[in-house]
Design brief:
There is one protein chain. With about 160 residues, this protein is α+β, with helices and mostly antiparallel strands. The protein has one domain: Glutaredoxin (3-Layer(aba) Sandwich), CATH 3.40.30. The protein is about 30% helix and about 25% strand. The chain is built from 5 helices and 9 strands; from the N terminus they run E-E-E-H-H-E-H-E-H-E-E-E-E-H. The strands form 2 sheets. It has a 7-stranded mixed β-sheet. It is globular and about 45 Å long. It starts with 11 loop residues before the first strand and ends with a helix.
């Protein structure tokens, strides 16, 4: 399990345009990694739209938001376009990064063998260290956005 103060593990995932992206691309600025269980679900939509609507707040801290789900690039692209998400959405369809960070909900929604990322948020400082982490066992629970903002303020 990851801990606050540790270096966040780098990863390589496809974005919605089929471009491989790494966490290392976003060095030198605070990063918000927002793992969400699935595109086109009501709570995930609300969460990602809240991050979209908070972008101007986060920009004052030079922070980069990155959304990550286990959905493939095609579903995530449609989700990003429908919700006008203007930050990178990455596709962890192999579920390796989600498992390494916040973990997985196994047999999600009672579907045997179907796993999704636990809703979780990691704020990384400019050195790539975990400054804040929030992991929910309840996929219907949204992160505490005010805590994320407070952590970003403290990093500047």
């Amino acid at each position: 399990m990851l801990k606050v103060g540790e270096k966040a593990p780098d990863f390589e995932l496809y974005d919605i345009d089929l471009k491989l992206r790494t966490l290392g691309e976003f060095n030198e600025k605070p990063v918000i990694l927002a793992f969400y269980p699935g595109a086109f679900t009501s709570v995930c939509q609300k969460e990602m739209c809240t991050f979209r609507d908070s972008l101007s707040k986060f920009n004052q801290f030079n922070a980069q938001i990155i959304g990550i789900s286990v959905d493939g690039p095609f579903a995530n692209k449609a989700f990003a376009q429908q919700n006008m998400l203007n930050f990178p959405i990455l596709c962890d369809f192999e579920r390796k990064v989600s498992k390494n960070y916040g973990g997985l909900h196994e047999n999600f929604a009672g579907i045997k063998g179907y796993s999704v990322a636990k809703r979780s948020v990691f704020v990384l400082n400019k050195k790539g260290e975990i400054a804040y982490m929030w992991i929910s066992e309840d996929p219907g629970k949204e992160p505490i956005y005010s805590e994320i903002e407070q952590i970003l303020k403290s990093l500047n």
